[in-house]
Design brief:
This is Iron-sulfur cluster assembly accessory protein. It holds the Pfam family Fe-S_biosyn. GO terms for molecular function: 2 iron, 2 sulfur cluster binding; 4 iron, 4 sulfur cluster binding; iron ion binding. This protein has 111 residues and is mainly beta. The protein has a single domain, classed as Hypothetical Protein Aq_1857, Chain: A. The strands form two sheets. The protein has a six-stranded mixed β-sheet with strand order 4-5-2-3-9-8, with helices on one face. Strands 1-6-7 form a three-stranded mixed β-sheet. The longest helix is centred in the first third of the chain and has 11 residues.
Length: 111
Amino acid sequence: MNVELNLPPKVTERAFARLAQINADGPMRALRVAVLGGGCSGFQYDIKLDDPADDDLILKGEGQSVVVDPVSLPFLTGAVIEFTDELIGARFVIENPNATSSCGCGTSFAI
């Protein structure tokens, strides 16, 4: 990987704001960002609402939490977690400097 290992992922204000909207009508949940094997490029992102685990990295902002498990963390070093709202849909996206290629949908990548 081409990024310094001690550079944690960053979450944008827009992503934290969207998570706050999601959590406004229900129980407070963290946004879990994980990397799994699979997808058309070798790895894929798994983004879901979840509760933090004891060994997760917890990124906080606007009263919200984004969590990354220790296995996924090296794949997300230096990444930016963003929320986009475009004509094709609204979603959380990962801008990952470690990815050497990715698929058209943006959920699968190679290192």
